[in-house]
Write a structure and sequence with these properties.
The chain has 581 residues and is α/β, with parallel strands linked by helices. The chain has 21 helices and 24 strands. It has three domains: 130 residues, Nucleotidyltransferase, domain 5 (2-Layer Sandwich); 204 residues, Nucleotidyltransferase, domain 5 (2-Layer Sandwich), CATH 3.30.420.40; 204 residues, Alpha-Beta Complex (DHBP synthase), CATH 3.90.870.20. The protein is 36% helix and 20% strand. The mean pLDDT is 94. The chain binds fe (ii) ion (FE2).
């Protein structure tokens, strides 16, 4: 029996997974256990969960795989340091990161019950990204691309995957990075938090790409498909930008220089109003990213003559760009894993080692339900403990064992405009709630977005909510007929359908869909089918089950979120809890 523990440590979204004889058994992000968004550090809680899920101890694990390798790209690091003579702090930071990595064995001993006697494998960051998509994809052969911020002194890598092998053609090295470009402009737009890029992506359709001349000064496309940054607009290559990666929410200092302010004007303060100019810059940033991304993909398609594509890296979270791949390149089929960003590196590191050890391809990740689950007895005990609380808040609690009745009743509540917490089975792997830790609403109601923001989410009004749709209904409602199991692509909604589902139609007529099959999530499929029979719409609005916190993991977090917000209904397993009056 071969057991590999994969980890993403010392990056944002630290995580762990467990691969047994080549099949994934468990995977989760550390933030869900620590309750701090994007938690960076050593994923000790996620490791504990993975071992418990597999019913083993660390003593049974022979191999630990981590998604960084301090030795990788060493000559590039030395060359850069000698040529550019950057601030010493910058170099020291990178050495420190290496020191942290060497402590994996110590950290395992400290945070687990037994010391780790097996082998630690360091997998180069981008090989881990590429493996995290290709080695769990349904493709025997595909072009593989990682587009990212930074990891192991590189920001992007690409090549071809064949069977168990991944051959990397080329990389983009520090300090050039599309991830840094997007992140710096996100900061300039007044969104300072780690992972705020998706807000710029949501804002972009409200603007026009009026700043492309400026953007093309910042990012320069190269003939070989790659790109370079005009470094004068940035700080990260010559000064120490404050990065905090240890045991908490990651924080990144300002990445752009005064020259960017001269080019685009003063940065927006966080609480300052969003003007049309800001929206136009957001649109231009997104358009520039897409220009560089499709330039690379088109060159790679010519080079490899293969129609299949696997995407990973932080920028592969750009679901808007991903949704335009078929339109802007000759690729015919794309696979993007549920955790395309650094969290996914845990899976990539584990599979890179599985294949290095001679394992064969036999696993396809076609769903994201790899996290903790809770028994009915645990749910019952929780409800018992909270009986007084539930009574005080005038909640009725009913157990509905017949799944069709449970789904019909939930579908009715959704169709009546109620906001429904839906907590089922195993937690999702990756940043998206995909029908197991979700808040659901009626996509037909124009006011649903405001209701959700008022009752629970309180997020920026420009951000769209997403549709979960029955897989068999996709072509009837969207202009693409594709599998999107992980909400990683945004597609245009058919024009004649947009007015029917205003709550999940973005301002440009698009939707970040999740396609739901009976094979991968039978209960969620049944619920949407029930809603479809009632309303003629095979779609529900799906947003993550949380309130300014990581997505809920345990039932007590779900119940707590239900009780402190104005959610109308909570369905936990077979339990139907409804707030009366
Ligand atoms: Fe990365």
């Amino acid at each position: 029996m071969s057991i590999i523990l994969g980890i993403n440590a010392y990056h944002g979204d630290s995580s762990a997974c467990l691969v047994k004889d080549g099949a994934l058994v468990a995977a989760a992000e550390e933030e869900r256990f620590r309750r701090i968004k994007h938690w960076a550090g050593f994923p000790s809680e996620a490791i504990r969960y993975c071992l418990a899920e597999a019913g083993i101890g660390l003593v049974d694990v022979r191999h630990v795989a981590i998604n960084q390798d301090g030795k990788a790209n060493l000559w590039k690091k030395i060359g850069f340091t000698l040529a550019k003579r950057p601030d010493l702090g910058l170099v020291m930071d990178r050495i420190k990161n290496k020191r942290e990595r060497t402590n994996v064995r110590d950290e395992l001993a400290r945070t687990s019950v037994a010391p780790f006697a097996g082998e630690v494998h360091e997998v180069e960051h981008h090989l881990a990204h590429l493996s995290s998509a290709f080695h769990v994809s349904p493709f025997d052969e595909a072009v593989v691309v990682s587009v990212d911020g930074f990891g192991d002194f590189a920001s992007a890598a690409w090549g071809i995957g064949r069977g168990a092998e991944i051959a990397i053609d080329d990389k983009v090295y520090f300090p050039h990075s599309l991830g840094i470009f997007y992140q710096a402009l996100t900061q300039w737009l007044g969104f300072p938090h780690y992972g705020d890029e998706y807000k710029v992506m949501g804002l972009a359709p409200y603007g026009q790409p009026k700043f492309m001349t400026e953007m093309r000064r910042i990012v320069q496309l190269q003939g070989d498909g790659s790109f370079k940054l005009s470094l004068g607009y940035f700080r990260h290559h010559k000064e120490k930008v404050e990065y905090e990666w240890e045991n908490g929410e990651p924080k990144v200092g300002e990445l752009f220089s005064d020259a960017l302010v001269e080019l685009l004007g003063p940065m927006r303060r966080t609480n300052e109003e969003l003007t049309q100019r800001h929206k136009d810059v957001a649109r231009s940033v997104q358009a520039m990213y897409e220009e560089a991304f499709f330039h690379l993909l088109n060159v790679l398609h010519v080079r490899h003559g293969n129609d299949k594509l696997c995407l990973a890296g932080g920028c592969a979270m750009n679901s808007v760009a991903n949704g335009k791949v078929y339109q802007n390149t000759p690729f015919k089929k794309a696979y993007i894993q549920a955790a395309a960003g650094d969290a996914g590196g845990a899976i990539g590191a584990a599979y890179a080692v599985w294949h290095k050890l001679g394992g064969s391809r036999k696993f396809v990740m076609d769903h994201a339900y790899w996290g903790p689950h809770f028994s009915d007895a645990e749910l019952l005990a929780l409800l018992d403990t909270n009986a007084t609380n539930l009574l005080e808040q005038r909640c009725s609690v009913t157990r509905i064992e017949d799944e069709s009745v449970l789904c019909a009743r939930t579908a009715t509540a959704i169709s009546e405009g109620k906001v429904v917490g839906w907590f089922q089975d195993r937690m999702e792997w990756g940043p998206r709630a995909l029908g197991n830790r979700s808040i659901l609403g009626d996509p037909r109601r124009a006011d649903m977005k405001d209701i959700l923001n008022l009752k629970i989410k309180r997020r920026e009004s420009f951000r769209p909510f997403a549709p979960s749709i029955l897989r068999e209904a996709v072509s009837e409602w969207f202009e693409q007929d594709d599998d999107v199991p992980f909400m990683m692509q945004v597609y245009p909604i058919r024009e004649e359908k947009r007015a029917l589902i205003p709550a999940v139609t973005h301002v440009d007529g698009s939707g970040r869909l999740q396609t739901v099959t009976a094979d991968t999530n039978p209960r969620y499929h049944r619920l949407i089918s029930s809603f479809s029979r009632k309303t003629g719409v095979p779609i529900v609005l799906n947003t993550s089950f949380n309130e300014n916190e990581p997505v809920v993991c345990k039932p007590e977090e779900a119940l707590d979120c239900f009780l402190r917000t104005k959610m109308d209904v909570l369905v936990m397993g077979d339990w139907f809890i409804e707030r009366k009056g």
